[in-house]
């Protein structure tokens, strides 16, 4: 059943991203479903799953994109690994904190992607920060709220966001290292 679920997500990502989410874009901004899924899987399952989902979904997005090949692969793989590592203890926080962290991860993802594609032009870093980055980060965060909530209810490993406003939790992660 797990493999069927994984293959279904892998096969439906591009059609959902390009067809369905195209219809619900706001002000020309649509969410990055691959980034949302990589974040949620990394948060729920750890760095190995995050790394693998980042490789799979980043590579898939790069395969079907018309941009520079490898940018999504690098960014989503790095995001999956970093969030998986941080998910051991630091991201075992309230839903609000996870959404705020995801907002900044999404901003950083778009900024680094633009930096890799556009490079340093004569205008400097300030011209790389485009207004739609904040809109996409907000939109991504709205989608991530629902998925993080579902992951927290489905996964007994992370609990139910009981740490409310605590920035650092002493509990850490209860996952086994098997």
UniProtKB/TrEMBL annotation:
Subcellular location: Cell membrane
InterPro entries: Cell_shape_determining_MreD
Membrane topology: Multi-pass membrane protein
Chief location: membrane
GO term, biological process aspect, one: regulation of cell shape
Keywords (A to Z) from UniProt: Cell membrane, Cell shape, Membrane, Transmembrane, Transmembrane helix
Similarity field: Belongs to the MreD family.
UniProt xrefs under NCBIfam families: shape_MreD (TIGR03426)
Protein name in UniProt: Rod shape-determining protein MreD
Species assigned in the record: Candidatus Manganitrophus noduliformans
Gene behind this protein: mreD
């Amino acid at each position: 059943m797990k493999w069927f679920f994984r293959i279904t997500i892998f096969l439906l990502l591009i059609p959902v991203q390009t067809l369905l989410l195209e219809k619900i874009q706001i002000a020309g901004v649509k969410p990055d479903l691959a980034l949302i899924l990589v974040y949620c899987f990394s948060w729920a399952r750890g760095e190995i799953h995050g790394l693998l989902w980042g490789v799979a979904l980043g590579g898939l997005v790069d395969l079907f994109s018309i941009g520079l090949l490898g940018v999504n692969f690098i960014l989503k793989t790095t995001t999956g690994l970093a969030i998986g590592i941080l998910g051991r203890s630091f991201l075992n926080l309230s839903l609000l904190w996870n959404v705020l962290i995801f907002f900044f991860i999404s901003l950083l993802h778009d900024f680094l992607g633009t930096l890799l594609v556009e490079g340093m032009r004569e205008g400097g870093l300030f011209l790389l920060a485009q207004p739609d980055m904040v809109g996409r980060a907000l939109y991504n965060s709205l989608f991530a709220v629902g998925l993080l909530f579902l992951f927290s209810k489905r996964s007994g490993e992370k609990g139910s966001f009981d740490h409310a406003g605590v920035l650092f939790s002493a509990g850490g992660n209860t996952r086994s290292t098997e």
